[in-house]
Amino acid sequence: MDLTQGTTEEKNKRAKKMMLWFGIVSLIMGFAGWTSAYIVSSKREDWVSDLELPSAFFLSTAIIILSSITYLIAKKAVAKDNQKMGTVFLLVTLVLGITFISLQFLGFSQMLENGYYFTGPTSNIKMSYVFLIAAVHIAHVVAGLISLLVVLVQQLRKKYTPENMLGMELGATFWHFLDFLWVYLILFMYFVK
């Protein structure tokens, strides 16, 4: 396929999608580095392998999976020109995204209540990685929420139609990536002792 061919609009769409994927690949590389460091550090003598992840992390996992489903429903509704349903499910996705972040902070509180800190004399390297990985993911979910807010505002302005959904498609792709990333991270931290 010759990427130089097509209308200006088609080239613009391809360029925006490609830029999103470049960003996603760079995020994957960053998290691959942190999870690799986690694995290498797990060989240390002071590594504590019997720590439990906070229960709020598992509940937040269910919430972020549900939010991906609601984003998908919103996108399909707009593709079928059901604008009202699309808007409702975008709002539900926004609420679920905020709930996810709230549950992550609850998870941090649970870790602190159990005496695990990010740094200091009572910290340990494993929980420091858990704090770091979850906090960096939260930062990216905040970016996803900003993207979702932009999509929601554009939806309320009636920008999206079955023929013009690029912004929503880009936002949904990023959101689904964040969902899959968290599922990978929680499974990784659960199984890599």
List keywords for this structure.
mainly alpha, 193 residues
Mind summarizing the main beta sheet? Answer: none
Spatial gap, N to C terminus: 45 Å
Considering DSSP H and I runs of 4 or more, what fraction of the residues is helical?
over 70%
Q: What is the number of strand segments?
A: 0
Number of helices: 5
Radius of gyration: 19 Å
Order of helices and strands: HHHHH
Estimate the mean pLDDT confidence: 92
User: How much β-strand is present in the residues?
Assistant: under 5%
Coarse shape: elongated
Poorly predicted regions: none
The class by helix and strand makeup works out as mainly alpha
Account of the protein in words:
The chain is built from five helices and no strands. It is mostly helical and 193 residues long. The longest helix has 34 residues, at 8-41. The radius of gyration is 19 Å and the shape is elongated.
